[in-house]
Amino acid sequence: MQYTSDSDKITRDYFDSLLVETRYVDAVAPSTRMTLFGETFHTPVMTAALSHLNNTRHDGMTVYAQAAQLSGAVHWVGMGSESELEEIVATGARTIKIIKPHADNQVVFRKIEHAVKAGCMAVGMDIDHAFNSEGGYDNVFGLPMKAKTTEELADFVQAAEGVPFIVKGVLSVHDAEKCLKAGCAGMVVSHHHGMIQYAVPPLMVVQDILSATGGSVPVFVDCGIESGMDAYKCLTLGAKAVSVGRHLMPLLKEGAESVARRIDQMTAELAGVMARTGVGTLEEMDASVIHRRAF
Questions:
Q1: Which residue among the candidates 75, 102, 129, 192 is catalytic per the annotation?
Q2: What kind and span of H or E run contains 123?
Q3: What is the pTM of this model?
């Protein structure tokens, strides 16, 4: 098979290369309930840390949060104003705020402080927006970015004052070990939908990352997840939960109920695979049901 530099296509092909065996004997009707940072949710299918959805509809960011709340899912949010974040949290959605790696750390500290005060259940940083494609530091909507050191990440962890700090954009054991050293409470394995060409599929490195970190913090998978089967494969290989973004975006125009309906459908699809592979709870996931054909 010929592959292009399109990381999203490579990721999709990797998902589709993973095959699942069935296990019916002694199987039971499954539960998809998930506990994260001491809170319980109906599903491990989470929204992704999107931004600027007001370009889709004027209240897009709030509608996105409302959908997560309706589905009992964890909600993630990216860039946006303080007032927008407060509106999102006010929907009742348990929200994780992801902050860009601003060159000025004081900007990062202010955003962490506001997210904590606003009532976010966790806060974190999107480390893969540090550089542009030409080797210089990135600039996002006129805002200068810069790569962060392990020591700086540790400072951000401390600034969160006990609220879990998560790093998004981990795609290697190298970065996972650095994040763990900094005291991060979780990691999102992601290539930001092709931030770099020929990116390793997030699901391909999850088990290596879990082995390196000893499973001491939850690991989440982002990029290309479109179904309950995709979610199942991630969870079976060790992910705590998955983030779904682009797959849900077209439904925003129809309102929160439409987005929530798809999250619920994906959760039901996940439960269907769990039932047919002998998995009663998310804690019982068994990677030995996965077989890989030639990739």
A1: 192
A2: strand 122-126
A3: 0.96
